[in-house]
Amino acid sequence: MLQETVRQQLLAIVGSDFYKDDPQSLVTHSYDGTPMLQALPDGVIYPASTEQVSAIMKVLNTHRIPVIGRGSGTNLCGGTVPVEGGVVMVMHRMNRILEVDLENLVAIVQPGLITKSFIAHVESLGLFYPPDPSSMAISTIGGNIAECSGGLRGLKYGTTKDYVLGLEAVLASGEIIRTGGKLMKDVAGYDLTKLLVGSEGTLAIITEATLKLVPPPKYKKTMLAMYKDLYGAARTVSKIIESRIIPSTLEFLDNATVRVVDDFAKLGLPLDMEAILLIEQDGETEMVERDIARIEEICRSEQAHSVSIAESPEEALKLLTARRSAFTALARLRPTTILEDATVPRSKIAEMVLEINRIARKHQVTICTFGHAGDGNLHPTATTDARDKEEIHRVEAAFAEIFEAAIRLGGTITGEHGVGLVKSPYLEWKVGSAGIEVMQAVKQAFDPHHLLNPGKIFAKQSRKRVVLQHG
Amino acid sequence: MRCGFCLPACPTFRETGIEAESPRGRIALMKAVTDGLMMPDQSFEEQMSHCLGCRACEPACPADVKYGQLLEQTREAIEAHTESHRWWVKPLRHVVFKQLFPHQKRVRLLGGAIRLYQQAGLRKLARSAGVMKLLPVHLSEMEQVLPDASSKGIVQKIGSHHPAKGTKIAKVGMFRGCLMDMLFTETNIKTVELLTEAGFEVVIPDTQACCGALHAHSGEMKDARSLARKNIAAFQAAGVDYIVSNAGGCGASLTEYDHLLHEDEQWREGALWLAKRVVDISHLLIRSGKLAAAQPEGQPIRITYQDSCHLRNVMRSADAPRKLLRDVSGAEFVEMFEADRCCGSAGTYNIVQPEMAGGLLARKMEHANATKAHYLLTSNPGCLLQMKLGAAKHGDGQMQVQHIVDFLHERLVHNSSDKVKEQA
Hints:
Mean pLDDT of chain A: 94
Distance between the termini of chain B: 63 Å
Oligomer: heterodimer
Strand content of chain B: 5-15%
Radius of gyration of chain B: 21 Å
Number of strands of chain A: 16
Strand content of chain A: 15-25%
Helix content of chain B: 55-70%
C-alpha cells in the first residue's frame, strides 16, 4: 500500500474509479501470461491521457515508486509481473485509433488498442498491418511495441519494429518525448523509436504510436505438409529459404503439438505424423502459384508423407487460428506449460530441432516444439508440473542448455517474447558484458532512479528462474 | 495457464474492461483465496456472483480449463461459509431451493397461483393500484412480460406416453423442466408433437425432478446432487434411447451429471448413462430429417436466433438450431451480430444483478433490432423471457419473440400433416 499522501495525489489525477488498491485489483495485476510468477503491486492505475500519464509519473518519480506499464498481460517473459511492487499502469482506457492517414499509409493509435481490432479496422479500409502475434485477439498495440512482438507473418513482413515509425512516450521524470513521425526516412540523431520498441517498459511509458500500413496481398494460398520424419520437415524449412522463396508463413508443429491443437480445434489432422508444416504464400496470383508449386516439390523431395492445399479461405483461417492456439493447447497435457523462445539462423532449424530433442532426452523432460520455423524462431515448450520441484529443476537445466545451443548455432535466447524476468539470467550470454554495460547506461539515461519496470531485462548475475509467491 | 484467450469471450470483461471481471481474473482470485493470499471477503463474493456463468470462456480456451466447475466449487464454498447475505436472502433461498424447485407439484401450484393472479383481475388491480411500483423496476418490467402460467403441467394435460408417427426411429424421454412446464406448457406440448411427427416415441416420466442447475450455480451442490439422482432413476426406469431437452440451461445441467456425481460410487455409472443420452431438441430433429420444410402463406419472413449460452458453450450445439431454421422455406435466416453473447438472463442473474444484465440486454437488442427480423427465436425459457423483456423495452413492436419449438411447430408440423393428408 502506498503512503496516503501519494494515494491522494494519484486519486486527484485519475479520479476514484481509476486508482485501485483493493485486494481484488492487486491480485488480478500480480501476474501475466508467464507461468509460475506472481507478485502483488501496491496499486493499479488506469490513465486516460498522455497528460495524466505525465502527471502520474511526476508523482511516482518524486516518491521513487516503481511503475509497471501493462496492456492485457499476455506476455510470456514475466514482463509485467510487479516483482518490486509499485504501481501497475493499465493502458486499456487509452485505446483509440486517432487517425488513419490514407495519403501517407500510416495510422496513429493509442497503446491500449487491441491488436486484432486495429487489424480489422485497417483491413476494412483496404490496408494491411502485418504483425500478428498469436495473442492478438486480446494483446494491445502498446504491449506489442514494448515487447516487439512477432507472429506468423514475421518471416516475410517483419515484426512490430518494422512498422513503428514514431512514438510519443512519457519518461520516468514525467517529461513527454516524441520520436519519428509520419515520415519514412529520418536519421536525425539516435533512433529512439527503434530503441523504445522492445524496451519492455523499462525506458518510458508509450502513449501514442505512428504505425506503417502496407497494401494487402492480392491472393494467398495455404498448404499443409505432413512428415513421418521430424528431420525431413525441419530440412524442408531450410531448403525453402535456400531456394530463395520467402513464404508469408512457414510454421512447424511437432507430433505432440499437432495432437493437442487438433483436440481443441477439431481439424481432423492425422495424429501419427512426426511433424506438420503449415505454409502460406501471398502476393500476385502467378507468383503465389509458382512458389506453392515449388514448395510442394521441395516438401516431396524431403519425403513429405502428404501435401494438401486448403480448399477455402475459411479452412486456411481455421488452420492458422488453430496454430495460434498451440501454446495454450499444450496445457492440456500437464498442469504447467513453460514456453520458450529460442531462435537460430534459418539454415540451422533442422540442427536446432535435433538439439532440442537430444537435450530433452538427456534431462528426461517432455519438450514439445512448434514455432515460426521460417524465421528460425522455435518455441520449445516444456509440459511439466510446478509442484514437482525436482522436475522443474531439470526443465530449467534443459532450457539453459537449449539457449546455449541456440547461441552456439548463431542464434539468440529470445526471438519475439522479450527478456523480461525469465530470460534475464541469460542475456549476458547473448550480448556479452560490454553489451550489458551499454544497455545499463542507456537505462540510466532514461530512468536514473530505476522506477520503470524494475527487475526486468537486467538480472543479478546468479539469478535463476524463480517461483515468486505472496508478493 | 494465464494466456488470456478467454478475455475477449467474456461478457462482463467486455462490459467493464477490468481484469477481475474476466475468467482469468476470477480464477486468479479463486487461487489467491485458496493460497491464503487474499481473504474471501464480501467483494470476492460479489465478484463471483457477478459472473454470468455463461461459460463462453470454455470453448474459447485451448487449454480446456473447466471454468464452470471452478465457479461452482467456489460458490458452494461461499454458500457454506457466508453470513453476508441480506436478511431476506437466506429464507428466500431456502424456500426456492429446498421447498419449491425440488417438488414438481409445488412448482405447478405456484403456476396456478400466478395464473390466478393473472386471470382474476388481480394483476390489473395490482398494476392500477401501483403495487408494482413497490417492486424494483426490473422486477415489475419482468412481471409484465410473463406469459400466462399454468397449474397443469404437460403430463396433466396430455399424458406421459406418445407413440411415434410412422416408423419409429428411437424412444426419447422428454425432460420437461420447471419454468418450461409452468410458463411454457404449450411449448412443451409442441415439443412432443414435433418429436412424434419426426418419428420419435416420446415418454415423459412423471417422477422426474428439477435438473438442479439453479442449485448448482448458486452453490447448493447437495440439493443439485439429490435432484440428479431422482432424474437418473426416472429416466433409467423409462428405458429411453435419448433424453431430450428444449431448454439449454436444463440440457447442459443434465449433460454434466457425470461430473456432478463423479464421487458418488453408487450413482456414477447411472450419471454417465444419462449424461451421454442428453440431447437438445434441435439436434435430434436434425438427426431425424423426417420433417418436411414448410411453405408458409403470405410474405417471406425474416428470422434471427439468440443462442442459449449453455446450449452453445456446454452442449456445444450452435449449428443444429441454425440448420433447422435455414431449412424453413419462405423464411430468411439472418445472423445477428454476437448472437453467441449472453443476453444477461443467466438463470436468476437478471434478477440479482439488474445493472449488468440491463447493460447486456440493451446491447443485445441493438444487434437484434439491426437484423430487422420479424421473429427472434431462442432455445431456453430464461433467454426467451429476457428477449421478450428486451423487445418490449427496446423494440419497435414489430419483432415477435418465440421459442424455436413454437416457431418450427407452426411451420413444420402443420405442413407435414398437411402433406401426409394430401398424399392420402
